Amino acid sequence: MGAIDVWSQITTQRMADRPWMETLLRWTGRPGDRSTPDVAGTLAAMDAADVDIMFLSAWQGPEGSLISNEEVAESIDAAPDRFRGLATVDINNPVEAVREIRRWVDGERFVGVRLVPWLLDLPPNDRRFYPIYVACVEAGVPFCTQIGHTGPLCRSEPGRLIPYLDDVLLDFPELKVVGGHVGFPWIDELVSLSLKYPNLYVDTSAYAVHRLPEDFVKFMKGPGQSRVMFGTNWPMLSPSRCLKHLDALELSDEGRELFLSGNARRVFGLK
């Protein structure tokens, strides 16, 4: 059984052209490259690294839709056995946001909701997020977000776990939260909240595994074995690049299986 990549996107040109993308491109050795992937290229990248399923994210920013739920649905239609969707919404229109979640998120094709606080410059305990959390609990799906510093030249503070995500987890004990991008430099806060809250999970998107912080790897091998999932942030990083040095982590057979697919299957209820 192959891996599951819980954070990826098939980027649109309007997203690729955003000024804040340039920092990400520079970090990944592709400065000035505003090209976008297609379904065929994405499937080829998955096959090269034995990735069975990718979760494709929709993106909504202050400027409007960057990748729409409709566009994600079209990609899923092109390869329904290989893709699942993570819907997005406009949190400034809470009633319509809840309707969008009820429209798209069925737990089968769309298996969660993703919003990134740095893009909105709002911490996740802002009141505008709260109707989204209720809708996720009602739908029985995780809320996926970003934790830690930001690659783009935007404020990192909304990605800090304490006090912001701490408040959310206190207020919504039934909400499964998946924090992407590891949480650096606040690894201690990630570990402490993971021990405190059984409904907090994390993925390794935006990191090749050999670049994971040492304290995160210790967590991953210990109390975080059932909490950490594989992610890439495709097309910023390819699955092959992310997993090239997986053996060097020296995970147990059980830990390796949970990291690559088992935790994602359980948390997202994949059949």
Overall domain count: 1
Largest sheet, strands/sense/barrel:
8 strands, parallel
Count of helical stretches: 12
Provide the CATH top-level class.
Alpha Beta
Uncertain parts:
none
Structural class: alpha/beta
Estimate what percentage of residues fall within beta strands.
15-25%
In percent, how helical is the residue content?
Answer: 25-40%
Q: Overall 3D geometry?
A: globular
Spatial order of strands in the largest sheet = 1-2-5-6-7-8-9-10
CATH homologous superfamily placement: Metal-dependent hydrolases
Distance between the termini: 13 Å
Please write the string of helix (H) and strand (E) elements: EHHHEEEHEHEHHEHEHEHEHH
**Strand element count:** 10
Q: Summarize model confidence as the mean pLDDT.
A: 96
The CATH architecture can be named as: Alpha-Beta Barrel
Instruction: From the 3D structure, determine the CATH topology.
Output: TIM Barrel
Radius of gyration: 17 Å
What does this structure look like?
The longest helix has 16 residues. It contains twelve helices and ten strands. Helix 10 links the parallel strand 9 and strand 10. The protein is globular, with a radius of gyration of 17 Å. The chain has 271 residues and is α/β, with parallel strands linked by helices. Strands 1-2-5-6-7-8-9-10 form an eight-stranded parallel β-sheet, with helices on both faces. Strands 3-4 form a two-stranded antiparallel sheet. It has one domain: Alpha-Beta Barrel (TIM Barrel), CATH 3.20.20.
